């Protein structure tokens, strides 16, 4: 199935031509910043299956996993669209909120529950990991 998406203002648009390898909620501290306090919902996809148009700004940091993460944002509206580990050239991450239809993916996993705040609601139906799954 072909999926499309983009940032809030429309300056960045992308196409995804492969099924997600994983769909998961992430409670890592980094995701809490970009999701305004809640868990982020992400799909992990093959990099080769993603093409995009429009200018992205990038910000690199070291994640709690120890990986070097590069996060790509729309410079106009600030939406974070993609992230990628610089140690993993095969896969990248797309923020589910940027899909044109976020309803057609289904989270199966919740990760970094150890850094979730006490009020977090963690769905017991999801496979849970305290940190990064191996
Ligand atoms: Zn934008
Ligand atoms: Zn995260």
Automatic annotation (TrEMBL):
Family annotation (PROSITE patterns): CENP_V_GFA
Alphabetized Gene3D superfamilies for the sequence: glutathione-dependent formaldehyde- activating enzyme (gfa) (3.90.1590.10)
CENP-V/GFA domain mapped to chain residues: 3-120
Record-linked Pfam families: GFA
Cross-referenced InterPro entries: CENP-V/GFA, Mss4-like_sf
UniProt keyword list: Lyase, Metal-binding, Zinc
Protein family membership: Belongs to the Gfa family.
The protein's name in its UniProt record: GFA family protein
Organism: Luteimonas kalidii
Lineage start: Bacteria, Pseudomonadati, Pseudomonadota, Gammaproteobacteria, Lysobacterales
């Amino acid at each position: 199935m072909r999926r499309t998406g983009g940032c809030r203002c429309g300056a960045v648009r992308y196409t995804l031509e492969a099924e997600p390898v994983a769909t998961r909620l992430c409670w890592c501290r980094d995701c809490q910043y970009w999701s305004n306090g809640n868990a982020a919902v992400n799909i992990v996809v093959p990099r080769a299956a993603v093409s995009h148009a429009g200018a992205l700004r990038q910000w690199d940091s070291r994640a709690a996993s120890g990986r070097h993460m590069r996060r790509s944002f729309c410079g106009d509206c600030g939406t974070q669209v993609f992230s990628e580990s610089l140690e993993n050239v095969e896969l990248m991450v797309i923020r589910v909120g940027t899909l044109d239809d976020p309803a057609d993916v289904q989270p199966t996993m919740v990760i970094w529950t150890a850094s979730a705040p006490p009020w977090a609601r963690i769905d017991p139906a999801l496979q849970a990991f305290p940190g990064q799954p191996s």
